[in-house]
């Protein structure tokens, strides 16, 4: 592929169909920003999906990337594509290392599922159980981290686009609960702080993200919802 072909998106011919709170959408937005790819974003309401979206989205999920060639879905696939068609891959070059990163990207998706379990937990006991699962996953992640700024490098890599959106949830949770999710994972804690300062990670959500997330959490009618309402009272 030539460099001209590689920078095929300089005219901004792509559109990322997005939802303001979606951590998978954030992954794609971070890659778009890190690779300086001009694009448009169309935000939709997942509780009232437009017909045009239903017509083009095989799984009814965001993110969705619309290009001149057609539609792509699944955040990992979208991210890999964007990385491939632009210069300078965000992945490591060594095949094993690249595969290892992809393994830990999958692991990141399981943390997102655990986070959904946490904010949906109906009572304190279930919340504590879900918290223990998340801490256990952070301990596994801790064992993968070295002394680099990001997951495995002092330069931002593809995998870092996955962990930024994960840690962002805790900025909101910590407003309402005093539980520490990082008591045994100093490297994860540092990784979180580094990612929270990364411009691509910061800009991956709309300005009203936190208030929208709080509204979303309140509607879960969960233990966390109660904590939020108690604080507001
Ligand atoms: N595996 C998918 C997950 C995407 C996903 O679950 N997106 C959620 C929003 S965060 C969605 O669109 N859900 C559909 C719905 O709520 O109806 C990916 O990586 O893109």
UniProtKB/TrEMBL annotation:
Root EC class: transferase
Keywords: Transferase
Domain GST N-terminal: 12-90
Domain GST C-terminal: 94-222
Protein name (record): glutathione transferase
GO CC annotations, alphabetized: cytoplasm
Pfam families: GST_C, GST_N_2
Keyword Transferase: yes
Superkingdom, natural source: Bacteria
PANTHER family the UniProt entry points to: GLUTATHIONE S-TRANSFERASE OMEGA, PTHR43968
Single GO MF descriptor: glutathione transferase activity
EC number: 2.5.1.18
Record field: catalytic activity: RX + glutathione = an S-substituted glutathione + a halide anion + H(+)
Keyword Transferase: yes
